[in-house]
């Protein structure tokens, strides 16, 4: 039964619809927490799942009067013919299920109507990084914001001395998008070889292990953090992770190779940190104290980066725990972009 005391209470629903994960945050006009959730939803496997997920979330907040704010990154899924088809398809589903109280967030930092998406779909492609630049960095005066997720890393500078791009193609070639995440990235796509004991060891050009195997072994991730399927379909035990990791180098797990797997993990982590830092350095002045805001599933790597390079690190937790309990902050933290889409809209 609908709660009459809440039925007229307006809430703002931020949606971050990605290719692998769909995230939702619900706040009232005073930024009070209502609801948050995250779903592993590989749209390339089944587009119909997005309809079920949206319906489930709507049922969870049925007692409120919602105003929806949507950002997309799922348009590059290869079950769509192209990005235009993808964005129009996603927008039509949202329009049908979410109703009239709905705005779509563009890469021009504007909240637009359904017709605007249909008329100019590419303006809504991969807009999830824009509120970091348009709202967060300006409000909190960070030099760079980095969102390191399961699949990609967005590097968003405050002031830059080179173009940063808008589309994925532009940004990946301008050093503001890195196709690396701490969960889903195949290791053979990251490296040809790594240095262990001052010697190069080469990876097999096969899909045996991925980034989550590295960070589960290092205990930076827990098995419950990893929602997507592994290369071999097996669970996320540390033993299975070691088997997958060593297989990537043409080895099997044995007592002899156990220590080597730990050295491989350390070398891979170090190389990833250096790769991210190389991009950071493109957008900051030398000899300047750099203030980095970090969020996402891979925030732990950003903390290590800042400690190693003597940058000042600011976590999304710093912002959230100033407004919410630790428990509520953790619920929002996983879905920070959806949260930011609301704050940007309300300008609070």
What's the arrangement of secondary structure elements?
Blueprint: H1 4-7, E1 10-17, E2 21-28, E3 33-40, H2 49-60, E4 65-72, H3 83-98, E5 102-105, E6 111-112, H4 114-119, H5 130-140, E7 144-148, E8 153-157, H6 168-173, E9 177-178, H7 187-190, E10 193-196, E11 199-202, H8 211-217, H9 238-247, H10 255-281, E12 291-295, H11 299-309, E13 312-315, H12 316-320, H13 326-333, H14 336-346
Parallel strand pairs: 1-4, 4-5, 7-12, 12-13
Antiparallel strand pairs: 1-2, 2-3, 5-6, 7-8, 8-9, 10-11
Helix pairs in contact: 2-3, 5-14, 8-9, 10-11
Structure, described:
This protein is of the alpha/beta class and 348 residues long. Among the domains are: 4-127 and 323-346, 2-Layer Sandwich (Nucleotidyltransferase, domain 5), CATH 3.30.420.40; 187-273, conserved archaeal protein q6m145 (Nucleotidyltransferase, domain 5, 2-Layer Sandwich). The chain has 14 helices and 13 strands. The chain has helices at residues 4-7, 49-60, 83-98, 114-119, 130-140, 168-173, 187-190, 211-217, 238-247, 255-281, 299-309, 316-320, 326-333, 336-346, and strands spanning 10-17, 21-28, 33-40, 65-72, 102-105, 111-112, 144-148, 153-157, 177-178, 193-196, 199-202, 291-295, 312-315. The strands form three sheets. It has a six-stranded mixed sheet with strand order 3-2-1-4-5-6, sandwiched between helices. A five-stranded mixed sheet has the order 9-8-7-12-13, with helices on both faces. Strands 10-11 form a two-stranded antiparallel sheet. Strand 2 (21-28) and strand 3 form a beta hairpin. Helix 10 (255-281) packs across helix 11.
């Amino acid at each position: 039964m609908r709660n009459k005391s809440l039925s007229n209470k307006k809430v703002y629903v931020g949606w971050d619809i990605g290719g692998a994960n769909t995230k939702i945050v619900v706040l009232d006009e005073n930024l009070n927490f209502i609801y948050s959730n995250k779903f592993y939803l590989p749209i390339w496997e089944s587009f119909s799942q997005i309809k079920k997920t949206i319906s489930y979330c709507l049922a969870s907040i049925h007692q409120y009067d919602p105003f929806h704010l949507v950002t997309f990154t799922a348009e590059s899924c290869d079950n769509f013919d192209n990005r235009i088809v993808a964005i129009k398809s996603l927008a039509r589903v949202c329009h049908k299920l979410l109703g009239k109280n709905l705005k779509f967030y563009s890469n021009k930092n504007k909240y637009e109507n359904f017709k605007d998406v249909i008329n100019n779909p590419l303006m809504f492609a991969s807009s999830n990084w824009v509120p970091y630049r348009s709202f967060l960095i300006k409000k909190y005066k960070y030099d760079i914001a980095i969102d390191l997720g399961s699949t990609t890393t967005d590097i968003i500078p405050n002031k830059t001395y080179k173009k940063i791009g808008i589309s994925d193609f532009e940004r990946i070639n301008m050093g503001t998008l890195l196709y690396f995440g701490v969960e889903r990235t195949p290791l053979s796509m990251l490296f040809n070889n790594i240095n262990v004991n001052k010697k190069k060891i080469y990876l097999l050009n096969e899909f045996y292990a991925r980034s989550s195997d590295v960070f589960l072994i290092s205990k930076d991730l827990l098995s419950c953090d990893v929602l997507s399927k592994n290369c071999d379909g097996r669970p996320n035990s540390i033993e299975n992770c070691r088997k997958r990791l060593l297989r990537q180098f043409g080895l099997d797990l044995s007592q002899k190779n156990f220590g080597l797997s730990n050295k491989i993990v350390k070398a891979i982590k170090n190389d990833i940190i250096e790769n991210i830092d190389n991009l950071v350095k493109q957008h900051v002045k030398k000899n300047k104290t750099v203030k980095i805001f970090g969020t996402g599933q891979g925030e732990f790597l950003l903390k290590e980066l800042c400690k190693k390079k003597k940058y000042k690190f600011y976590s999304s937790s710093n912002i959230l725990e100033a407004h919410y309990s630790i428990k509520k902050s953790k619920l929002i933290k996983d879905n920070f972009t959806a949260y930011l889409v609301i704050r940007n809209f309300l300008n609070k």
